């Protein structure tokens, strides 16, 4: 994640968050989805 700067949270759902980030390499903006693994694992067992 060192290649990206977090700009803002743009959404949230039951499994995680969507984060708007900016690349430090090319300056482009991307959306990264952060998934709560512990919640996902609990539901799959």
Automatic annotation (TrEMBL):
Coiled coil feature spans: none
Domain of life: Eukaryota
Keyword Thylakoid among record annotations: no
Keywords: ATP-binding, Kinase, Nucleotide-binding, Serine/threonine-protein kinase, Transferase
Top-rank EC class of the record's enzyme: transferase
A GO molecular-function annotation: ATP binding
Gene3D superfamilies the record matches: Phosphorylase Kinase, domain 1
Catalytic reactions on record: L-seryl-[protein] + ATP = O-phospho-L-seryl-[protein] + ADP + H(+); L-threonyl-[protein] + ATP = O-phospho-L-threonyl-[protein] + ADP + H(+)
UniProt-annotated binding residues for ATP: 33
EC assignment: 2.7.11.1
InterPro entries given in the database record: Kinase-like_dom_sf, NEK_Ser/Thr_kinase_NIMA, Protein_kinase_ATP_BS
Transmembrane portions of the chain: none
PANTHER family, per database record: CAMK FAMILY PROTEIN KINASE (PTHR44899), SERINE_THREONINE-PROTEIN KINASE NEK1 (PTHR44899:SF4)
Protein's name according to its UniProt entry: non-specific serine/threonine protein kinase
